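Summary for the steering committee. The consortium agreed at its last meeting that each partner would contribute one worked example illustrating the joint modelling workflow. Our contribution is presented below. We chose a case with several input lines so that the handling of multiple components could be demonstrated. No manual editing was applied between input and output; the record is shown as generated.
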Amino acid sequence: MPTIRYRLNGRPQQYDGDPTQPLLWHLRDDLGLIGSKFGCGIGACGACTVHLNGDAARSCLLPVSALADADVRTIEGLAQGDELHPLQRAWIDHDVAQCGYCQAGQIMAAAALLEKHPTPNEEQINAAMSGICRCGTYSRMRKAIASVVADGESA
Amino acid sequence: MSAQSRRTFLRSGLKLSGLLIAVSSAPTRLLAEQAQEQISAGQIGAVLRFDEQGLATLLVPTPDMGQGMMTTSAQILADELDLDLDRVQVQLNSAIERYDAQGQATSGEFVQGAGGSLSTMVSWPQLRRAAAYARALLVSAAAAHWNAPQSQLETRAGRVHHRGNGASIGYAELVAAASQEHSTLRPNNVEPKRLAQLTRVGRDQRNVHARQIATGQPLFAGDLSVPGMLHAVIRRCPHLNGSVQSFDASAAEAMPGVVRVLPFPRVPEDRKQWRQRAAGIAVVAKSHWQALKAAQALSIDWDGSLAVEDDSVILHTKCMKALSDGEFQQLHQHGDVEAALAASAHQVDLSYYHPHWAHTCMEPHNAIADVRADSAEIWVGNQNALGVVNAVAEATGLRANQVKVNIQRMGTGFGRKWPTDYVTEAALISQQVGAPVKLQWTREDEIEQDYYNPLGAYRIRAGVDSDGNLSAWHFRVASDALLRTAAQDLPIGLVPASLGESLQIPNNISRGAWRGPQHNVAGWVIQSTLDELAEQAGIDSLQFLLRLYSGKAPLRSPNWPFVDIDTARHVALLEKVAAEADWGKSLPAGRGQGIAVHQTFHSIAAHVVEVEMRGERDFIVHRVTSAIDCGLVINPLGVRAQVEGGVIDGICAAKYGEVRFDKGVPVSNNFNSYRKLRYAEAPRRIDVHLMDHGDSEPRGTGETALPPVIPALTNAIYAASGKRVRRLPLLRAEG
Ligand code: FES
Ligand code: FES
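What follows is the complete predicted structure of the assembly.
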């Protein structure tokens, strides 16, 4: 099996295992990066969302073979050291999480959106926030995202 | 004190104490066991622990599945202990065990579980007592240290202060001495603070794990690993109550990483009895992905012959037909319903139907088990800590006191994580392969092997007299469960003539508790019927409900937990949401408001929902105005979260909730076929109001908001579209 080289949270990474293994399980089981969660395995819930070359991607459907030369960011790599990403800060301030299981995926989805569109319209937010939260924290997510957008606008 | 000597100090503290307050290097279980003997007032084990750096950890006993019990418990403990919550860690305690004569783990007064919206109610007195005792020990130790009268001392932010000389000492430094105070100070002699003295209770407290959650730290059982751990996946029988006829594992066994293939029979063997474990074949491998791939490569012949009649279309037809010709069991009878119906000025005769709902817990079930010859250690998210201990002991043949259970945070539970099937599977696999094992269910497993919310078919005949009062109520329900709640609930007790009947029609579908068991659907049927009656009688829905609930004497509920119902509280809730939502305001065409109220167990909620139709059946919810009466509110922010979540869960269940069965096979088994409410469909605005009747005790919140939101929604849909909703889900796939 050819070695697959990619970048993970800014650091070079290589992989020699089963190329069909989805990135989600590679992260969780091989690397101990357990922030990305398993929720459905079919790309429908968003709990496993990471960034692939800056775009939100569902890692449960992404075989490691697709990662050659790619840039992958996970929730563990979103903060700059101790400095939380503004969305992480907003998620805490707005007390978004209930059980918390879906939230890494939600934050990653929102972060990818704001990187592309710092002042998204409602349609863009609705389209980007396509994951499921079984605790029903959507209204607090809405407020958290709005606060970060507003801060960005006033900055 | 130097770091070194301080550590020694704390260590020696452990040796002397091993108690209520102790250091982290000792196993928590030991502490809990020792402590529970000491705390006759509490029975909740250790509540506070210091590590070698003197950092405090609050130990909370009640499992958290998103209902916020870790936060609420920590808030109660910190208030009583005078600790700064921002500067302590909060951890779940492992299962606190005591044993009965048969060696089963058994709880005392304090049940270490999450169900029936009881956690806060049950924890409140116990946590306060235990924490008050811990604080008294610390103060007593400080008094001895300074040789000062206790009246000179006070506690603030994790320190005991001497008012006389201004000195202070941290709790961590008092650990050793405090633990010796046990001999002179008994827990029964310590009273918790008075309500008025509490400073944190009643104030917004954010999720104590908000930062860990937002940064992806390990909190759930599936996030953990133990050395030498293998991974297991079970290919489970897709047929209800099916079994394995034969299987060929040769392809799977030859795949990389595969360690063992193990058949799993259904337990118990008698398929008429409640399923404890489903039939299937387990694959154990070095990684989850290897196990999953190999499980897919198994070739299995299933026997699904038992359940072919259990088909969504047949189930519906059977239950609806039974409403007119079934032999119902009479659960309640008062007055002469037929005569009252005949004498009424307005009548309705309505049928309702809802299918099964699955839990779809966000985190598919998983567990880690390390079973040895004479011990077992388990890491799992489960709602019932001692249930896990006993189930693992029974499955493995170990004694309960050989089983250690580390309860982890749950990625939702909704009642499904009360059963222990997924834990005993992991334990049995570990026992058979002789290594620690992490078992991970797929989403398909989670839906196919669910204990579903029961289906229900209903017929209600009811009448209103010429004064606009409800005068007759005949309620029938046919289901695969014996549904008592709906057939005995209000308005029974408020009507001069009433009859409640239920009929169980058995099938092969396993059922269980689903957020607000029975109430979740009873609320819909009852409050929808009342809305239709109001319309028949030409009375505004709010006015009709106010008339029904006003001026009634308190009555004892015939449904669990058999509390006194004071409908003046229903009235207060209705008036609140009506005022806040501007009930009856004029709305453009295609928009409408609906109102409903319902009591679930100890607490009551009411909502006004405002919808706008988007096409024939689809809709968006613009605004939900909610009010909850849950007694003393400990964490307003948390209670609001539970109401918001309950509202969304209710709208989700009403809109999409349906497990389709095709000849005995649950076919809606992942999020593509079993849809869930998402961000774009969620209400634009949810305003939550907390009622304050000056109660001194908290009551439940986790299940309260959901039951009344469904009828408030369907009543709003009627107001917006002129179409009554008598069958759920709102967006049915077919049929
Ligand atoms: S687990 Fe990847 S989208 Fe659900
Ligand atoms: S916070 Fe629990 S599923 Fe989203």
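The helical segments of chain A are 23-30, 86-93, 103-116, 122-128, 138-154. Chain A is about 35% helix and 15% strand.
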